[in-house]
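> forwarded from #structure-qc
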């Protein structure tokens, strides 16, 4: 009612309850100037109200509505990677909004989330400190939960599996140890005392140095089930991440599957396995994680990354809806039970560091509600509500947004390339980075495998056989270089430099053209934006222009670094019909931007 009273400019609106309507769903019927929103819950009525407001803001016809909506997933949740000291891992929009929670700002946060249907939030980093469960932290979580509750948002916490040792002073965190279970029971009771509608735990265990049940000779199922049993009577859930890999394995892309498939069917009903969309790590393009089509007896949720860890941080305009849609081209929406998104939110005035990065927060919420929505539709909605209803801006910028992800893939890692990022950060390229002593699976050559013959990771039956983890006929299709989609070529094959592509070009020439195409696209985005000046306020125009200039320059850096480096293996000329690199490889190798994982380089690769 508050939202409508303050923002609705149309005729009267009646809010009505009706038990038969699905949880969070609603209908809107407008007749004779009067709209009726019907839902079974408060949240449903609120989502209906936000729907009306969205249509109003988009200048849509609101006089003849006959709408019936319900979300695809019950759980539509953000994962904040916020640390207790206020830093945000892979966050590029300032510091944590939860450090010194500000009621006004959290109200806006709650409304923004609710307006796109997000109904859960994990307040802290999956690399969780044991202190996340200290009484002081829980008091803070309660304060935040109280602020978010009116907007239908439940609070969750990431937990450190060794908390009973580090926080509780026990000798072990073995999930089968009685004193450990008793510790968790007490802690969970304390949480529910403070936050009666607490959602549950998110756990990163035995991954990248985090503790877990395997440290005590137990399985992921033992660990997850213990926590699930403790949470069950309070109605809580466990989101247990499948992001695991170790340096001993022959192929990082196979490991989550190898570790979790044998456990299929062993998890309690209030455990959901949270799986990143791809088998490696939020790359600009990955095939889907094969767990999604193989686990049959375990509820799964997909984890997308809204923050642009691998996509130009808060400098590049990359609209992610097309990437998430691509996932759903392979994995039917019904195969997953929920959607999580790693938030790109910080205390920057514009929330996400780049004005257009807000569109990714928006798109995540809309797709978690309805994964079949088209990217164009989401971009169009967002532009109209954020800037203007003037088609002279909406149309060209919808085009920019929907093309932006493919452009980023082109100038960063086309044709299946992945993880060729710099050593110290994930902003730019360093395909040559491989210092002695660094884990091989943390260096680009592990992934690109460039040599005199070609480029790419052989994951076919003659290589690591990762293709086998995919169902037929996809597995066979991926295994054969002639039928493997070219967008995944070097992901699955070591491709000879002179291999004939469908375009008729050699693989080397195609690679060069793809990189250059990305550069030209990034420049075109800037040119399109330059023409938007009449439709945008000066501040936002200038700020976006500044970022698009960085993006266009960074794209050149990516192209030049990658092509000049790969050329040292291919020994082939850059094709005559494209723009040639402007940088010098030796100089590029000497230069690096010094940033941590909590920062956005303010000028990109500009020296
Ligand atoms: C939170 C990648 C990121 C890490 C992140 C990890 C994860 O490795 O680089 O910053 O840690 O994924 O998802 O757990």
């Amino acid at each position: 009612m508050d939202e409508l009273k303050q923002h609705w400019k149309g005729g009267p609106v009646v809010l009505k309850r009706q038990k038969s309507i699905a949880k969070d769903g609603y209908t809107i019927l407008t007749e004779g100037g009067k709209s009726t929103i019907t839902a079974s819950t408060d949240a449903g009525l609120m989502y209906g109200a936000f729907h009306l407001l969205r249509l109003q803001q988009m200048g849509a016809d609101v006089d003849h509505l006959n709408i019936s909506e319900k979300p695809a997933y019950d759980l539509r949740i953000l994962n904040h990677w916020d640390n207790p000291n206020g830093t945000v891992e892979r966050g590029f929009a300032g510091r944590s909004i939860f450090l010194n929670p500000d009621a006004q700002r959290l109200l806006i946060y709650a409304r923004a989330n609710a307006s796109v249907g997000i109904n859960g939030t994990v307040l802290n980093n999956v690399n969780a400190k044991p202190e996340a469960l200290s009484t002081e932290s829980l008091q803070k979580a309660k304060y935040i939960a109280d602020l978010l509750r009116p907007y239908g948002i439940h609070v969750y916490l990431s937990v450190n599996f060794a908390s009973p040792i580090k926080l509780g002073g026990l000798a072990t965190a073995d999930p089968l140890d009685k004193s450990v279970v008793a510790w968790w029971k007490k802690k969970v009771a304390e949480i529910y005392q403070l936050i009666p509608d607490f959602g549950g735990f998110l756990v990163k265990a035995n991954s990248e140095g985090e503790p877990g049940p395997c440290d005590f000779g137990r399985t992921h199922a033992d660990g997850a089930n213990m926590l699930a049993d403790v949470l069950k009577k309070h109605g809580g859930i466990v989101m247990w991440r499948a992001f695991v890999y170790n340096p001993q394995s022959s192929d990082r892309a196979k490991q989550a599957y190898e570790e979790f498939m044998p456990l299929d069917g062993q998890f309690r009903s209030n455990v959901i396995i949270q799986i990143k969309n791809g088998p490696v790590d939020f790359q600009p393009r990955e095939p889907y994680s094969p767990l999604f089509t193989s686990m049959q007896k375990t509820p799964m949720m997909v984890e997308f990354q809204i923050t642009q860890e691998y996509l130009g941080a808060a400098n590049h305009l990359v609209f992610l809806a097309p990437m998430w849609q691509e996932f759903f081209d392979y994995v039917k929406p019904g195969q997953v039970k929920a959607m999580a998104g790693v938030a790109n939110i910080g205390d920057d005035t514009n929330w996400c560091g780049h004005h257009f990065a807000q569109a990714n927060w928006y798109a995540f919420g809309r797709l978690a509600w309805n994964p079949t929505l088209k990217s164009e539709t989401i971009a169009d909605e967002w532009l109209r509500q954020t800037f203007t209803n003037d088609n002279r801006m909406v149309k060209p910028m919808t085009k920019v947004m929907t093309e932006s992800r493919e452009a980023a893939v082109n100038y960063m890692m086309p044709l299946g390339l992945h993880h060729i990022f710099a050593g110290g950060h994930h902003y730019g390229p360093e395909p040559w980075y491989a210092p002695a002593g660094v884990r091989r699976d943390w260096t680009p050559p592990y992934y690109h495998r460039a040599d005199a013959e070609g480029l790419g990771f052989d994951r076919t039956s003659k290589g690591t056989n990762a293709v086998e983890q995919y169902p037929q006929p996809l597995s066979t299709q991926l295994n054969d270089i002639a039928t493997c989609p070219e967008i995944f070529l070097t992901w699955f094959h070591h491709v000879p430099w002179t291999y004939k592509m469908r375009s008729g070009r050699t693989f080397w020439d195609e690679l060069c053209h793809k990189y250059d195409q990305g550069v030209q696209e990034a420049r075109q985005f800037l040119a399109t934006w330059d023409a938007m000046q009449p439709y945008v306020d000066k501040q936002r125009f200038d700020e976006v222009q500044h970022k698009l200039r960085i993006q266009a320059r960074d794209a050149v850096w990516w192209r030049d670094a990658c092509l000049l480096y790969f050329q040292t293996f291919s020994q082939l000329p850059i094709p005559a019909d494209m723009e040639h690199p402007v940088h010098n490889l030796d100089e590029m190798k000497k230069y690096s931007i010094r940033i941590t994982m909590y920062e956005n380089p303010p000028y990109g690769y500009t020296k």
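QC bot note: The longest strand covers residues 26-31. The chain has a mean pLDDT of 97.
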